[in-house]
Design a protein that fits this description.
The protein is an alpha+beta fold. The chain is 32% helix and 25% strand. The protein has a 6-stranded antiparallel barrel.
């Protein structure tokens, strides 16, 4: 069981915002994360935005001309004023009967629910038939370039299935599903696939 990395601070059935714990590793753009709800339901989301900012929205961080290590040593209070948050699009969930459904869940994550990274086994269950790509392409996070998020997601799928040692077959299946969603826009599909890896 992976360690929790963040805590939900805003939530809807479509997305959640989470604050990363100071000691945890921030998830990457396009990485899968999960939130476990009461009753055995698990929400799966894709990290679509990561931000480091001041706790106080009215006070911006300022430049000190020092490295992070120098700031930690000489002015540790400065680092305490910053926080890392990420937004994740919820595009699948596992119900209480252990069935993965690639659609929006009936209920959002709760405020203060914990967020965990997804293990490779979870990514295998979130693959074919790649219905989640429809949600991602047709109803994207409006503040994120959808093609860049698809590239990141497919890169994680490719890696989870072994990269050059097995991931290529899975990537072909995902590319076929994506091609249909892009109305056979081969130039756009090629642009996405060239950047995967």
């Amino acid at each position: 069981m992976p360690n929790k990395i963040a805590e939900v601070i805003e939530s809807s059935t479509r997305a959640f915002l989470a604050e990363v714990y100071r000691e945890a590793e921030t998830p990457a753009f396009g990485q899968w994360v999960q939130v476990r709800l009461k009753g055995g339901v698990v929400l799966y989301g894709l990290v679509s935005h990561v931000e480091i900012a001041s706790y106080d929205p009215h006070r911006r961080a300022i430049a000190f001309g020092k490295t992070e290590e120098e700031l930690q040593k000489e002015m540790p209070q400065v680092m305490e004023l910053l926080r890392t948050t990420f937004r994740a699009q919820v595009i699948a969930y596992r119900d209480a009967r252990d069935t993965v459904r690639q659609t929006l869940p009936p209920h959002p994550a709760g405020i203060h629910d914990f967020v965990y990274p997804c293990a490779p086994d979870d990514l295998h269950r979130l693959g074919q038939p790649y219905d989640f790509l429809r949600t991602l392409v047709r109803n994207p996070d409006p503040s994120v370039p959808v093609d860049d998020l698809v590239v990141a997601v497919l890169s994680h799928v490719y890696d989870a299935h072994g990269g050059r040692h097995g991931g290529e077959d899975e990537l072909v299946v995902a590319a076929r599903a994506l091609s249909r969603l892009l109305n056979d826009d081969h130039e756009r599909l090629q642009s996405i696939l060239r950047r995967v890896g």
